[in-house]
Queue: 2 jobs
Job 1
Amino acid sequence: MNALLKIAGALAVATALTAPALAQTTVIAPSGSTAGTYMDYMKTVYDRGTGSELLQIPIATFDKEFELTPMAAESWSQSEDGLTWTFKLRAGLVWSDGEPLTAEDYVFALQRAATSGYDFAWYWDFAGGIKGWKEVTEGTANVATLGLKAVDDLTIEVTTVAPKPYLPSVTSLWYPVPKHKVDELGDDWAVNVESIVSSGPFEIESWEKSNNSVVFTKSDTYTGPWSPVIDRLELDPTLNAPEVGLPAFLAGDSDYSFLNTGQVPVATQRFPDGIRKNAVFATSYISYDLDAAPFNDVNVRRAFYYAVDRAELTSTVLKDIAIPAGSILPPGYPGYSESVVAQATFDPEKAKQFLADAGFPNGEGFPDVEIWYRDEGGYNGAIVPAMAQYLQAEFKEVLGINLNVRPLPGPEWMDGLRGKKNNIFIAPYEYDYLDPSNFYGIFYNGGRHGYFIPEYDELVAKADSEPVWEERVKLYAQAEQVMIDQGLIVPLVHPITIAVISDQLGGDAAAPNKLGFTSLDRLAHYFFTHLTKQ
Amino acid sequence: MLTYILRRLVSVAVTFIVVSLIIFLMMHAIPGGPFDANDMPVSEAVRAKLMAQLGLDQPLHIQYLRYMWGVLHFDFGVPYQSPGETVTELLSRAWVPSLVLGGLGVVIGAPLGILLGMAAALNRNTWIDYFASTLATLGLTIPVFVTSMLLILVFAIWLNWLPANGWGKPERWILPIVAYALIPLATYARYTRSAMLDTLNKQFVTVLRAKGLSERRIIFQHVLRNSAIPLVTVFLPMFIGTATGSIFVEAMFRVPGLGAYFVSSIEVRDYPLEMALMLMITFMYCIAYLLSDIVYALINPRIRVGGAE
C-alpha cells in the first residue's frame, strides 16, 4: 500500500512538473517578405530569411517607447574628440552551438558587409560614417583600414570620419555574424537550418524557403536582456497581405492580421479591443530631377508644394491609412518640428502665383509631365496609387496642369531615379534607425535623388556632428527650411498601419505606447520578447 | 509517323532557341538590374563590382551563350533570390505543391466537366442544361481569387469545416484543389456540351439509331469518341497552365508553390530563374502539342500525318 502511495505521489509530482512543459505557447504572426535567401541580416537586408534579426543580438535596440536599450553592449562611451566610440559587450554571451560570442563577430559582420555586401554598403556609409568605409566598399582600400577594431573579446572600437553623436542608435542594426561558422562553411552557413546558429532570444526550428516562413523556439543558451515569454514563434510572410491574413485570423490560423481599408470597419465592430494602430515612421514625398525642366525652376517646385490639400487627401481617399505629412520627419520621431510642419499649408492662390511667376499662368504652356511611382505591396501599395490619382486631379484643378501617372516595378523605378530618366517621382521612405540624421541623410550630398545643395549639405553635416541635442534639432530644422525654400520635396503623407490582434495575446508588447501606437513586428526584438499568449 | 515525330522534335528545338533568345533580350531590355530594387542606390563602384561578380558585365551575346551552354548540360545557374541552391533544386522543391494541387485540380475537374457537359448535351434545354451552362459560365468568368475568397469565407469561416489556408496536412489541400478544379470543370463542360451536340446532329448518329443500337452504345462508343478531339486539344495545355501554379490561388491559400516565382523572378531581375521558368514552360508546351497531335491520330484514324498516305 505504501509503495502504491509512493508511486501515485511520484506520478502526481511528475504530472505537475510536465504540465507546464506540455502547455507550450505558440504565436503565429505575419512577418517578413515571401522571398528570402540567407538567414543572415548582415548578408542581405532586403532578401533576408524571415526573422533573421530575431536570431541574433544587436549591439542595442529600441523598446516600445523608442528608448535605446543596450543589448549585446553593456555600455558605450565616446572619446573626447568625438571620433571614437568604445562598446563594451556583456560577458557570457554565447552562440547556440556553445561558442563564445565575441567582439570579433561584430567587427567581422561589418568587414564582410563592406567587401562583399551591397544592400548595407550605403547604410554604413551614410549612417555610420565609419572611417574608410567608402574606400573599402569601392575596392580602393584594404578592409584592414576600416575604422573598426576588436580590442579584446568584449571591446569594440569604432572610428568615424566625423563625430557621430547618434552612432549608438545606428547600432540597432548591427548584428553579429558567427565568424567560426563562416570560416567553416562560408556564407552558406545561413542557408540550412542545420548549420544556422543564433545568438539572440530565439533559435530556428524550421524554415520553409518557398514562402520564407519560419518556426523559432525560445533559445536555451541566450543570457542577454529580454528573454521571450512564449515558447514558439511562427512567422509567416504569406499572412502579410490583409486579404489573406484576416481570413486566416478569423479561422484561428493567425494571432494577428494587418487590415486593409475595407476590413477596418468590420474588424473594429467585431473586435473593438483588438484594434492596434502604428505610425510606421515613414514618409511619402514628391521628389524631382532638379536639373531638368520644368522642375529646375524653384517657383514650379514651390507651386507644387502649396497645391496639395493633405487634409482632404487623408480624410477621403486615404482614410485610416495615412496622416498628413508637413515634414520629412513623422510625428513622434526625434527632431520633429511643429514650425516646419506648419508651413506645409494648402494654399491654391500662392500655388497659382508661384506657377505664374515661373511663366505658366494658370498652367498655360506647362508641359505634360509623368509622375513615376514604385509598384509594390504592403502599406505603400495601399497608399501610393490612390494618392497618385488624387494628385493628378488636384494639380489639374489647382494649377491647371496635366500630370500623368506611371507605376513601375522597383528596379525600373530606382533605375529611373538613379539615372534621372524622369523629372518627377513619388518616393516612399521608411526609417532605418531612430535619429533625424536618417531622414536628412536621404538628400545629403547626392544621396537618393542626386541632390547637391551646398547650403543643405553644410547644415546636415554640422547637425550630424553636433553633440548637443537641442542644437542638432535646430540645425536639422534649418536644413529642412532650405528644403522648403527651395521646394526640394513635397512631403505628402505618413502611413499608418492597422492590425487586429487576438484577445489571447497580452503582455507589454500588446499594449499601445504613450503615443497610442503598437509597433508589432516593426520592433521585433521588443515585441516578440514581451508578448504573452494565454 | 516516326519521321513526323522526329521532324516535330527538330521544330521543338528551333522554337526553344528562338524563344530563349526573345526572352533573354526582353529580360535585359527592361530598365533596372538586380541591384536596383532597394531604397538607396548603391555607388557606381560597388555596382560595377557586383555586376562583375555575377558575370553581368560581359557583353550580352557572351552572357547568352554561357547560359545556353549551361542549359545544354542541365545547369540553369543559381537563382539570385536563393543563392544557397541551384535553379534546378529550387524548381524541384517549389513545383511539388503546385503540381499536387494544380494537377489534382485538373484531374478531378476535367472528368467532372465532361460528365456535366454530357448531361447538358443529352438533356438540352432542360434545367440540367441551364444549370450546367450557368455553372460553366460562372466558373469561367469569376476570377479565381474571388472564388478562392468565397471558398474560404463559406467553408473555413462560416461553416468552419476546413482550414482556411496553408500547406502540409491534406485537409488543407481541399479548398485550393476545388479552386483549381473549377476552371477545367467549366472549360470541359462547355467544350463537351458543344462538341457532343455537334456530333449528335451528324447523320451517322441517325443511321446508328436507325440500326437499332442502344442509346448508351451510341453515346459512349460513337458520339463521345467523335467529340473527343477538342477535349484532347485543351487537356495538356490546361494541365501545364494549372499544374505550374497560379499566383492567385497560391497567395490566397498560402501555398508555397511555383506560381509566385513567375512574378518575383521578373520583379527582382532574377535572370537565371526567369530564363529557366520560361524555357521550362516553352518546352512543356511544345511537347504537349506534339503529344496532342499523336493522340489525335490514335483517336481518329482519319487524321493521318503527311496527308498523301
Job 2
Amino acid sequence: MSDWRRRQSRAAVWFLAPAGILLAVFVVWPLARSLWWSFHYADLLAPDGQPWAGGSHYSDLLRDPRFRRAFANTALFAVLVVPLQTTLAFFLALWVNRPEPAWRWLRVVFFLPTIVAMPVLAILWTMLYQPAQGDETGLINAMLGIVGVPAQAWLRDPLLALPAIAFMSIWQGTGLQMMVFLAGLQNVPRETLEAARVDGAGAWQRTRHVVVPAMRNSIVFVVTVTTILAFRLFVQPYLMTRGGPGNSTVSLVQTIYETTFLAQDLGRACAAAFLFLLLVGGLALVQRRLLREERA
Amino acid sequence: MTRVRNRAFSIFVACALALAGCRSAHEDETRLVRVWAHQGQEAENKAMREIAEAFDDAHRAFGVRVELTFFPDFQYAEKLAIAAAARDLPDAFDLDGPMVARLVDAGLLAPLDAWIDEETRGDFLPTILQQGTIEGRLYALGAFESAAVLYYDREKFERADVVAPPDLEGWTWDEFLEACAKLRTAGIEAVALHMDESADEWYTYAFSPVVWSAGGALVSPEGDDVQGVLASEANVRALESWQELFARGFAATDPVDPDPFGSGTVAMDWSGHWMARSHLEKFGDRLGVMPLPRVGPEAAAPCGSWCWGVSATSARTEDAVRWLKWVTHPEHGVAPIVRANGAVPARRSAFASFPEYRENPYALFRRQLETVARPRPRTPFYATLTQRFAAALRDIARGADVRSRLETAEAEVQRVVARRRVRDGGVDGSAEAVP
C-alpha cells in the first residue's frame, strides 16, 4: 500500500468516526440493550437485575391469542393497503402529470391529507363513518343511502372495522406515493414514448411496456416504504376504535405500546418489538429480492 | 495606577470568594425537596404553587424548601416510569390512586406508617386510607377524594310521573329501568352515562359499582388473580342488566354532547362530584341527587383520586414526609386545593371549612365515602385490568355477548397475571395455565 493510500485510510477512520459513534450510541447500543432485556423479566420501573427469562417471552407471545390477532390484523391491513394504495397512487400520478396550472392544483388537493396530522384525520373520519349512534348515520352512510346501500356500523362491526380503517389510511397516504411516482415519471424517456405512439401502441400498452419498466425503481421504493408504514399501523385504530370491537383492529404496535406502558413489562415488550423488527426486516429483504432495484 | 488596579482586583476577588463562600454555606443549610405533581386545571396548579410557597415560608427555619415541577396529566404515568427506570424519582410525588399498588410492587414507595400517627389517620376518610394501604402498610395519602352519584332533574321527573327513592336510598336496578321507561314514554331522554370518554378510566371508575352491587368483583380479594372473578356469574348478571340501558335506548353509546344533562336534554346524569357546582348553578332547587342504582342487594359507590407518596430511594425522606403532611394538612393543603378543584375534602376536620357539605348533593358525597364507597382494585396489574375491562364494557354497551366478552377480557388479564407468577416463582417460562 502506498504512503498516500495509507494516509487516506487513516483519514477515512476520522471522517467516519462521528457517524460511527452516533450510530453506536443511538442505534446499536439501544438495540443490544433491548435484545438483552427481551431475555429477562425486565420491569419498566426497575429494568436491571431481574431474573433470566430465556426465550419464554418469545414463545409466550407466539401463543398469545391477542398478539396473534394483532399480527393477523396488521398483516391483513398491509395486504389491503399496499397494492391498493400503490396502484391508486400510480394512476393518480399518470392522471395529474400535466403541465397546466389546473392539474397542479389537483396535485395539491391529493397531497393535502398527507400533511394533516393523523390524529385530526382519525377524529374526522370517525365522524364521517358514524357521528352518533344507532340509526343516526354519518356522511358516508348517507351517501351510500342515496345509491340504495343500507347503513353500516363501519367502526362497530368486527368485520368492517379494519377495512374501514384501511380505506381511510389509503385515502390519507396516496398523495405522498403519488408525488414519488410523479418524480419517477420524469425519468420516462419521451423519445421511447413517442416511438411507441408512432408504432401504434395504445395508452394501456404504452403504460405497461414503457412507463412501468422505466419507473421500476420508484415502484420498488413505494412498495417497500408503504409496506413498512402499513406494518407500523397504530394511530388510526388506537384513536378510532381503541383496537375494538373485540380485538378486531388491535395492531402489533399497539400491543407493543400497551406491554411497555400499561403492563410495564419491558422484557416482553422488547421481545415483541424484536419479533416486529424481524418481520418487517424480513419482508423488506424478500421484497428487495423479488423486485430487485435497478442500479444506474 | 497599576497598584490601584491591583488593589481593586484583589478586593473584587475577595468579595467574589466571600460571596461564593456565603452561597455555598447557605446552600448547605437549605435542603431542597424535589416534588412532582400532575398538571391540573390552572386554578389547581395555582393553588399547588401557593401551597408550596406557604410550605417554604413555614419551613425556612428548618432550612427546607420544595422544588415543585408539573407534568401534563396524560404523560405523567410514563414520566414516572421513565424516572423510575433512570433511578431519578423525585423525593415526593403525586400519583393516581390505582397506581399505588404497582409502585409499591416495584419497591418505589416508602411506607408511611412510622410517620403518620393514629390520630392523624383517623381524621382521613376511610377510603383514602384504603386506597393508600397495600398489604397492611400505608404508602400514600391524598388531599381530596371523589364521588359519583345519580343527579336528576325534579321537573322532568314530575312530568314523567317518576318518584325519586325516599331518603337518598337509591334505586334497585328494576326501579331504575322502570323510571327510564317512564321518562322515555314521556318523550324525555333517560340518562347520560358519558360513554364518550375516550380514556378507559371513566368506565372502570363509574361502572365498577354496578358489578360490586351484584356481589361481583374485578379481581380476587388478595388482588392477585382474575381467573373466575372477572367473568363470574355475578358480573355477567350485573353487566347484562347494565346492557339493557343501551339495548332499550335509555342511554347513548356514543353521545356527542359532553353534558346533555346540563343542556337540559336528559333527565338523569350518572356522573361525578366535578359536575356538582355547574349542575347546582343551572338547576338550583330543581337538582336532585341519589346514590347510583344497584343490581343486587349491596349499595356501592366508587372513590379514589390523586394522592401523595414518598420515594423509597429519597435521601430526604424526613423532609419529603414534611411536605406530604403539609399538602394533606386540613388547613394548609386540603382546604386550598379543594377550593380550587371542587373535589371532596379527604379529611374530616377539613369539612368544617366547607359549609356546603351539610346539604345535598355534597352531603351525599361524604356519606357515601364514609359508608359504602370502595377504591378500585389494588393490584400491580391494574393498568392492564382497567384497560381490558373498559374495552369489554365498550363492546357490551354496543351489544356484544356479555359472558363471552368478559371471558375474553378475563383470559387476557390472567395471561399478564400468570406471567408475573412465573417470574416471581422462577418456574420455567411456559404459561401453560393460561387459557
